[in-house]
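Follow-up to my earlier ticket, as requested here are the two runs.
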Amino acid sequence: MQIGMVTGHTRILGESQGYLGLPIRDELITGTVGGEGTPAMVTAWIPTPDEIARIAADAPIHLRILGTGHPPVMLDVGEVPE
């Protein structure tokens, strides 16, 4: 997956730590545990043609978390680009 530019990004994480930099959009959501006003960060990822082919062939999408603690996460599909 390639890092995408999420619409309305509010900051870029990781550049000062030597990573490529991850554009994020800070937002508040209504979560089932945290309720209304739960802080969240949204990123965008663009699958490569090979990854698209594997997804179409029913390959799973993996979410890799660095470290030993697993924060709450969500995956969804964004809007089709115009």
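Run two:
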Amino acid sequence: MKYIVLGLGHFGKSLAIHLTQMGHEVIAADLKLSIVEQLKDRITHTVCLDTTDREAVKSLPLKDANAVIVAIGEDEGASLLTTALLKQLQVKRIIGRVVSELQKTVMEAMEISEYIMPEEEAAERLALRLDNIDIVDSFKVSDQYSIIETKVPSKYVGKTLKEANLTNIFKVIVLTTIQISEIQEQGRSRAHKEASGIATSDTLLAEGDILVLFGELSNINRLIQKGE
């Protein structure tokens, strides 16, 4: 697939590099030539241009892109101008980065339905981890449901999912389990995570493994507390 990423700050740079590593064709643009030059070997294509300049943006293959991501975060004015310009040029899929409630309101007024708030999402995930030390990571699916990574509670170590009966007792679904191991890389050890595949009734819950759970946060917290 082909993606265009506009703005190569920390977020835009990381996004463009990851998409390139996944095998997608990525065109990444930024106003600063030094940043463009620095990333030219890590992203499919990099270009230096002003994303608020209509003619410059029109030179990009907008119609061929599966999505155009406005990753500008530091300059809200430039971000909104760029988004408005893409809307005028009838780009079929625009994804915007939002850093404030005002910007979110303006985006919604422009009928941009896809936007991300990376700072807010990261803060919420960290807050959950700080609130409960057994939560390893989290992803909010909706206002009601979340996907949570948590250590296998000691009460269930050595049991299969059928024996633990977590879905019936706590109204949560175990998506998979993750094994943690240490590997050596360039003289340093780092944690390596490997999922066991889609969980079944025969999946064994081992000490030190991570459960990947789907459900309401209150039910997941109840499972963690009861399983200690």
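The only thing I checked on run two: The domain at 2-116 is CATH 3.40.50.720 (Rossmann fold). Let me know what else you need.
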